[in-house]
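Reopening this one. Same input as before:
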Amino acid sequence: MKIVGITYWTGAEEMILKNDSCLLNNRKPMFVPEGTKDLRASECIVLRVSRLGKGISERFAERYYDAVAFGIDFVAMDVLEHARTSGRSWTSAYGFDYSLAVGDWIKKEEISESEIEEAIGPLTTTINEAISRVSKDMTIRQGDLIYITARRVPEPVEQEQIISKTINGEERLYCRIK
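Same output, byte for byte:
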């Protein structure tokens, strides 16, 4: 399983790869990693890929995912800044264990892109553009996850903070920072 993100951390769009140990399922606590004093979070939408595809056109992208979930993408901004200035890999800043919290899955037919943007704000890119863009660089497979962050600067988080997202009166994401 691949986890691919389209993010807006640095003020510009970036495509990020994460491994499966980055996944934090709903209602599990997120532990602040050692070595950071500036943990930040971006709200995002997570797509669950439902079929194999490569080089997918935007007009057919709708066929390649079956569910969405609200998520939180965590980044250690102080570690990222140090990595950028020293020319080192950014992986330690965004690829640490449990750096992507994912809420409950919603069938794609049950929520629209406009409802998603109303809940978390404008996305870095549209869902169809994200699927098309990722599939141009790599083959996507059933079970892969693609996440798209909101188009804004990540917000600082603190220990014991609770991040939740409620849609239509139903809590869809809950994450406690420890």
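So the earlier flakiness isn't reproducible anymore. For the record, The chain has a mean pLDDT of 94.
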